[in-house]
Write a structure and sequence with these properties.
- The protein is built from 21 helices and twelve strands.
- Helix 7 crosses helix 8, helix 8 (181-199) packs across helix 13 and helix 15 (406-428) packs antiparallel against helix 16.
- The protein has a domain at 13-33 and 159-489: Creatine Kinase, Chain A, domain 2, CATH 3.30.590.
- Helix content is 46%, strand content 11%.
- The radius of gyration is 23 Å and the shape is globular.
- By secondary structure, the chain is α+β, with helices and mostly antiparallel strands.
- One of its GO terms (cellular component) is cytosol.
- Residues 16-379 form the Glutamate--cysteine ligase domain.
């Protein structure tokens, strides 16, 4: 049997998951959350105050940093096997930050930005004077020049997910793979990613929470959105403008698609994007971006899901080449402004089921034709997902593209996930996994239960603009139990205070010990070798 047969053949998911060895491995599933959110004033404007020192250094703090803008926070949990501990950690971070916000500020709970000023008034995140800090700032200047600052202020949630080694070893045996275990794991993570791309539109439908946007976001942009009121644009059936062509996208990157069919193809395409000069970007001067390539860095690659690996020594391209894929980062989650943390534990149960199902369901290689169908389907769901009787394009096994009702497609995916839910509930002696599927199924029977529908309904019923509603909800969350001072223990508070202090000291040390000129430092960072295996071995 060749490797393609092994990789893409169908396995009996129920029998595989009922294996004692597999079930024992499920407790070691790891997940982590990264949440981006903006500091705003009481007038729903971007904060003009620098990143508070009480939060530590945005450059070196492991859990509290900034994203694109100085006012755009990113709160990061460690990867954990204990879901409740992960959410407690996320709540502690929110509480710690909320207590240390400058007077009159709040945390903007939505994905689409608040009222935005002119581009030149949006401050890029400041990381100090070390070479590492200057690199991050130059990279963000490049993003601003390439895509505009407004787009970079779209925020979201990233859900990091990994299955344990013992799970993969059992699957390796089940599929009789000829690959080494390390290559097999990487191969199956790309298998998972392809299925997320195929079925990921369901995430936009169920959890999309950005059907409207403040009009300041679209100044100078062509669009087909309608006016909901004098301050807000919207689409009546939209689920996630963040995931639409008006959101976080790159037309330049779409000209050079990156393959997810296997690690070698992915790294080859990524190398090309990192080294190919872009006609659209080369005219920017040297101090306005890291380089003139299609991608300045690996992180610039946009997409709803990414293969990831953690490495302090190697840049991502070399680390993945040398060590393979460690986990996946699901990037298609909107901040839910009705939830204090932007995401719920029930949603996390659903995501674990979805990602595990994607790892086990058949996943043939993506063709150009199927990728075109996936892009079209995602845009339809993002902009028209709640439209009654909406039909989505679907590629059949005979390569014919047919139209299928969104409702039936969604219920079909959830039905296929029930086998996984039954095993998870039995293993963990709970009913929460099946309950999460039941809850999400209701949204296909009644689209008014989706967060996107709830937001539009409240805006219209209470005559609130997008910014007015998000301000109201964000203020409510500041007093929620998750953000109440009592919800963060003394130990957690002391730990975060210590981490903030240590991070400031570490940044100061980096700045004082700098030994190489930034231009030379940048030249080294921009050097790439196509033989990444050899390069990774010597770095």
């Amino acid at each position: 049997m060749n490797n393609n047969d092994v990789t893409y053949s169908e396995i009996d998911i129920q029998n595989f998951l009922n294996n004692d060895r597999v079930q024992a491995s499920l407790v070691d599933i790891r997940r982590g959350i990264e949440r981006e959110l903006i500091r705003t004033t009481e007038q729903s404007l971007l904060s003009g105050v620098p990143h508070p020192k009480a939060l530590g250094s945005a450059l070196t703090h492991p859990y509290i940093t900034t994203d694109f803008a100085e006012s755009q926070l990113e709160l990061v949990t460690a990867a954990m096997t204990d879901r409740s501990a992960m959410f407690n950690s996320l709540a502690s971070l929110h509480c710690f930050v909320a207590q240390r916000l400058p007077f009159g500020e709040m945390l903007w709970g939505a994905s689409m930005p608040p009222i935005l000023p002119n581009e030149e008034e949006i401050a890029i995140a400041n990381y100090g004077t070390s070479n590492a800090g200057l690199l991050k700032m130059r990279y963000r200047q490049g993003l601003a020049n390439r895509y505009g600052k407004r787009m970079q202020l779209i925020s979201g949630i990233h859900y990091n997910f990994s299955l344990p080694q013992s799970f993969w070893q059992a699957l390796h045996s089940e599929t009789h793979s000829d690959l080494s275990i390390d290559d097999f794991i990487s191969d199956r993570y790309f298998h998972l990613i392809r299925n997320v791309l195929r079925h990921g539109w369901i995430i936009a439908y169920l959890f999309g929470a950005s059907p409207a946007v403040d009009k300041s976001y679209l100044i100078g942009k062509e669009h087909t959105l309608a006016s909901l009121d004098e301050d807000s644009f919207y689409l009546p059936w939209a689920t996630s403008l963040r995931l639409s062509n008006l959101g976080y996208t790159s037309s330049e990157q779409s000209l050079y698609p990156v393959s997810f069919n296997n690690k070698q193809a992915y790294l080859s395409d990524l190398f090309t994007a990192l080294t190919r000069p872009s006609e659209r970007y080369t005219h920017f001067s040297g101090d306005q971006q890291l380089n003139g390539s299609v991608l300045q860095l690996e992180n610039e690659l946009y997409g709803s899901v990414r293969p990831k690996i953690v490495s302090d020594e190697l840049r991502p391209l070399y680390a993945m080449c040398h060590h393979g894929v460690q986990y996946v980062e699901l990037r298609s989650l909107d901040n839910n402004p009705y939830l204090p943390l932007g995401i719920s534990e029930e949603q996390s149960h659903f995501l674990d089921l979805f990602l595990t199902y994607c790892a086990l369901a058949p996943s043939p290689e993506l063709t150009e034709r199927e990728r075109t169908v996936i892009v079209r389907r995602q845009e339809l769901v993002a902009t028209r997902g709640r439209e009654p009787q909406l039909k989505l394009p679907s590629l059949q096994s005979n390569l014919e593209v047919v139209e299928e009702e969104l409702t039936q497609m969604g219920l079909g995916i959830i039905s296929s996930m029930r086998t996984v839910a039954l095993v998870f509930d039995e293993k963990f002696a709970t009913s929460q996994y099946q309950a999460s599927l039941d809850h999400e199924s209701e949204k296909f029977h009644n689209s008014e239960l989706t967060p996107s529908a709830m937001l539009l309904a409240q805006m219209q019923q209470e005559n609130l603009s997008h910014s007015a509603l998000i301000k109201q909800l964000s203020n409510e969350h500041l007093n929620h139990v998750h953000l109440d001072q009592k919800s963060i223990g003394i130990t957690e508070d002391e730990t975060l205070i210590q981490l903030a202090t240590e991070s400031l000291f570490k940044q100061a040390l980096m700045e004082s010990q700098q030994e190489i000129d930034f231009d030379d430092f940048l030249k080294q960072k921009n050097e790439l070798q196509r033989d990444c295996k050899q390069q990774a071995a010597v770095v």
